[in-house]
């Protein structure tokens, strides 16, 4: 991936826009994009800004350098070993991961190289993921005496229980094709095509009604937490509200008259 290497003064997070698609690039390549306190804070802020920006319809999350994200910055954490400091790091990271799910806009992970521990969690938290053929995933904390408990939350919601438990209990690396098979990623492409494939998928989604996408994403995560009858009741209420929107009327009329719709996001 042709992304400039970080210098001492470079920001820990890069941002670029292409139409309605915003790309956020983790920019600590010398540390395999480990999630430092500064990077967690920058990513949290960038996600909130994107959610509030009506010109942004889809986000892509990727990493600079040879890997996607190696997890928490363990050197930084060992430099501040107290319980309060550790609690703050895990809490702020958990809030950031949760914000990806609660965001009204889809987030696509474009993964190359390694995505381990909280990096694997980051992939699992995203709505969609494109992986390069050489990408590898792991929750290796068990080998360090630190079980990947917070990565477990996102991982166990993205893949089956036994697949998640095997990754968590063994800490072994999982290749891109196996990650696709268990549902951690959607597609596997040649390494050089990861970002272009993510951009093409993002552009496809960005061409849809942003209001409908927001309704749909939020309803998906809400209903999946509910019992069957409650899930149907919630989805029915959401679909009714969506049906009353201008975009729904425009989309249906466009379909019936065989023309392209013009979305207003209302």
Automatic annotation (TrEMBL):
Coiled-coil stretches are: none
Check the record and name the Gene3D superfamilies matching this protein.
2-enoyl-CoA Hydratase, Chain A, domain 1 (3.90.226.10), Lyase 2-enoyl-coa Hydratase, Chain A, domain 2 (1.10.12.10)
Query: What function does the entry list?
Result: May play a role in fatty acid biosynthesis and insulin sensitivity.
Which PANTHER family does its entry note? ENOYL-COA HYDRATASE DOMAIN-CONTAINING PROTEIN 3, MITOCHONDRIAL, PTHR43602
Molecular function GO labels: hydro-lyase activity
Top-rank taxon of the source lineage equals: Bacteria
Q: Which family does it belong to?
A: Belongs to the enoyl-CoA hydratase/isomerase family.
- The species this protein belongs to is Acidisphaera rubrifaciens HS-AP3
Keyword tags: Fatty acid metabolism, Lipid metabolism, Transit peptide
Q: Does the keyword Lipid metabolism apply?
A: yes
Q: Does the keyword Transit peptide apply?
A: yes
- Cited CDD domains: crotonase-like (cd06558)
Q: Output one GO BP term.
A: fatty acid metabolic process
Q: What is the protein's given name?
A: Enoyl-CoA hydratase domain-containing protein 3, mitochondrial
């Amino acid at each position: 991936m042709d992304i400039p290497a970080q210098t001492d003064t470079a920001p820990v997070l890069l941002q670029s826009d292409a139409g309605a698609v915003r790309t956020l690039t983790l920019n600590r390549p010398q540390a395999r994009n480990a999630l430092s306190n500064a990077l967690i804070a920058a990513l949290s802020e960038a996600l909130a800004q994107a959610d509030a920006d009506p010109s942004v319809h889809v986000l892509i999350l990727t990493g600079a350098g040879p890997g996607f994200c190696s997890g928490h910055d363990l050197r930084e954490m060992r430099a501040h070993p107290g319980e309060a400091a550790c609690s703050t790091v895990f809490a702020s990271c958990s809030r950031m991961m949760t914000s990806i799910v609660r965001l009204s806009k889809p987030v696509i992970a474009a993964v190359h190289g390694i995505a381990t521990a909280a990096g694997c969690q980051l992939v699992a938290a995203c709505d969609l993921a494109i992986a390069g053929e050489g990408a590898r995933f792991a929750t290796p904390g068990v080998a360090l005496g630190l079980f990947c408990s917070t990565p477990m939350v996102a991982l166990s919601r993205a893949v089956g229980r036994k697949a998640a438990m095997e990754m968590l209990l063994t800490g072994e690396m999982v290749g891109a094709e196996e990650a696709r098979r268990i549902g951690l990623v959607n597609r596997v492409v040649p390494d050089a095509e990861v970002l272009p494939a993510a951009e093409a998928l993002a552009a496809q989604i960005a061409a849809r009604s942003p209001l409908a996408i927001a309704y749909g994403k939020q309803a998906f995560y809400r209903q999946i937490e509910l019992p069957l009858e409650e899930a149907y009741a919630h989805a029915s209420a959401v679909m009714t509200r969506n049906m009353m929107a201008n975009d729904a009327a425009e989309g249906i009329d466009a379909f019936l008259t065989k023309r392209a719709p013009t979305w207003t996001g209302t």
